[in-house]
Amino acid sequence: MDGIKHHFVDAAAPPASPYHHAVEADGWLYVTGQLPTDPKDPTAPLPDDIQPQTRLVFENLQLILEHAGYTFDNVMFLRIYMTHFKRDFKAMNEIILGHFKNEYLPGRTTFGVAELGRDALMEIDLVAYKKPVV
């Protein structure tokens, strides 16, 4: 497809099913949902707590953003899925806020869900934008 770039990032955790880590078009980057899989050891058990899981998700997101030439300053929107919304929301936010400057906080929706792949406590996908180079 002309003008559309598919990103597969060797350094990030491998996809659990057939998809690319991100798809880019006209300055927009759509990053597929990332589970808290350790990119250095994808078969390792997931941490039991929301904060280390959030750190792993953001490690993968950062690897994907950097591969495509974006940063967290470019993130326009986060979509967050959590299996224990009430219990983990505050602790998760403490980690997330460390990745964004206050003037660049993205829009966001957070969902409470029944279950996620690998019995993860959370998953995040995002949309980022940067002005295309002409």
Keywords summarizing the entry:
single chain, 134 residues, alpha+beta, 60s Ribosomal Protein L30, Chain: A, six-stranded mixed β-sheet, 2 helices, 6 strands, 24% helix
CATH topology: 60s Ribosomal Protein L30, Chain: A
- For CATH, the homologous superfamily is named as RutC-like
pLDDT average, as an integer? 96
The separation of the N and C termini measures: 18 Å
User: In this structure, how is the largest beta sheet organized?
Assistant: 6 strands, mixed
What is the CA-based Rg, rounded? 14 Å
By CATH, the architecture is named 2-Layer Sandwich
Instruction: Please estimate the helix content.
Output: 10-25%
Uncertain segments are none
Physical arrangement of strands within the biggest beta sheet: 1-2-3-6-4-5
Question: Given this structure, which CATH class is correct?
Answer: Alpha Beta
Summarize the structure.
The protein has 134 residues and is α+β, with helices and mostly antiparallel strands. The protein has two helices and six strands.
Walk me through what this model shows.
With 134 residues, the protein is an alpha+beta fold. It has one domain (4-129): RutC-like (60s Ribosomal Protein L30, Chain: A), CATH 3.30.1330.40. Helix content is 24%, strand content 28%. It contains 2 helices and 6 strands, in the order βββαβαββ. It has helices at residues 50-68, 85-97; strands at 4-7, 22-25, 28-34, 75-82, 107-112, 122-129. It has a 6-stranded mixed beta sheet, covered by helices on one side. α1 packs across α2 (85-97). It is globular and about 45 Å long. The protein starts with a strand and ends in a 5-residue tail after the last strand. The mean pLDDT is 96.
